[in-house]
Amino acid sequence: MNQKLKVGILGGTGMVGQRFISLLENHPWFQVTTIAASPRSAGKTYEEAVGDRWKMTTPIPESIKKIVVMNVNEVEEVAAKVDFVFSAVDMSKDEIKAIEEAYAKTETPVVSNNSAHRWTPDVPMVIPEINPEHMKVIDFQKKRLGTTKGFVAVKPNCSIQSYAPVLTAWEEFEPYEVVATTYQAISGAGKTFQDWPEMKENIIPYIGGEEEKSEKEPLRIWGKIENGVIEPASSPVITCQCIRVPVLNGHTAAVFVKFKKKPTKEQLIEKLVHFKGVPQELQLPSAPKQFIQYLEEDNRPQVQADVKYEKGMGISVGRIREDSIYDFKFVGLSHNTLRGAAGGAVLCAELLKSQGYIQSK
To answer: Which InterPro entries match (predicted)?
Structure first.
């Protein structure tokens, strides 16, 4: 690529915005040239706006420190400086919907980490290895918005990454009933232990809205485009509990599955380790070479040992075994702020570029 695409980060001072900035520091295709945030940050350099709230383990990139933060509400001015934007704004759901569509209507593609548009019928919600064909619904969305280049695309909730890819790999065995409990890291709430000291040595058995997302979003990912919208699948039926645990990064899932066509354990493992998708075939920059790894040890996957597998973009699975009530059970692990948030959105943008939906203005 001769010239990198110019990228804006909406909500660039928050935790997910920071993750976008750190991930894109040396990206071969994309370069962060513009950062927009709330009016209180606007006019300050990025370094000044973030202050002591930088939460990444690596320092603020030198190329970013002196960028003057723009007002995210000045849509036309921000959009004029970029080829596309990543959205990580912290607003109400209605405000997010409105501002993301406003950017799209300036002919600026929006790749969102937010949940606001996940159920807008003509907005694709994509895990690139699973449903890259859903990006085609963008053509219908453009007609609704009256755009030629502008659109909104989203990535799904972080909580489903540790089991939805696994169930997809097992599709031919027809899973029809799933029980999942997710044990979710505090960074999923945009927190560190410094921000949230009461989470040390603690578990909270409730995360607002998370269980519905965990049960319903996989069905939309497995759905089909019909009459210009995405119609969710009806199976498998998923019931979920979501628990906040004292872990910084990494969502673990304990999952029970019933199949219509009962496989062997060996068949399940074989399907996992050979599962790949378009990102692997195209060798997209952020794609893991091996999407899912299977770990034979009884005490794996573990957050400390496995959460950074494939730079946090891969899925780790272990403890596949037969169950006395369900057919099989397993444990999955994914990195919630990499594969589950900013990294997943970057991979979506790479897919969109490869499909021709994101181009230089």
So the answer is: ASADH-related, Asp_semi-ald_DH_pep-lack, NAD(P)-bd_dom_sf, Semialdehyde_DH_NAD-bd, Semialdhyde_DH_dimer_dom
Does 323 reside within a domain?
yes
134 is catalytic: no
The helices-and-strands tally (H runs, E runs) of the chain is: 12, 14
Amino acid at 100: E
**E strand spans, 218-290:** 224-226, 229-231, 237-244, 251-259
Strand, coil or helix: 97: helix
Strand, helix or coil for residue 11:
coil
- For the chain, how many structural domains are there in total? 2
Q: Which residue among the candidates 117, 158, 240, 335 is catalytic per the annotation?
A: 158
B/e letters for 188-208, b = 16+ CB within 10 Å, e = fewer, are bbbbeeeebeebeeeeeeebe
Burial 23-39 (b: 16+ CB within 10 A, else e): bbeebebbbbbbbbbbe
User: Dihedral of CA 325/326/329/332: which sign?
Assistant: negative
Return the CATH number at 214: 3.30.360.10
Rounded to 10 degrees, the C-alpha dihedral 40/15/248/179 comes to: 120
Query: Where do the H-state alpha helices sit in 146-209?
Result: 164-169
Shortest CA distance to 47 belongs to which of 58, 62, 34?
A: 62
- What's residue 190's pLDDT? 86
CA 75, CA 83: separation in Å to the nearest integer? 13
Residue-wise pLDDT tens digits, 45-89: 999 999 999 989 899 999 999 999 999 999 999 999 999 999 999
Full domain range(s) for residue 187:
159-334
294 contacts: CB under 8 Å, gap ≥ 6: 269, 272, 273, 317, 318, 320
CB half-sphere exposure, 112, CA atoms < 13 A: 30
Rg of the chain in Å (alpha carbons) = 20
At how many degrees (to 10) do helices 343-354 and 15-23 cross? 50
Q: What is the pTM of this model?
A: 0.97
Q: Choose the catalytic residue: 117, 240, 242, 251.
A: 251
Q: How far is CA 206 from CA 90, 182, 239, 294, 313, in A?
A: 21, 11, 15, 29, 26
CATH number of the domain at 80, please: 3.40.50.720
Same domain, 321 and 175: yes
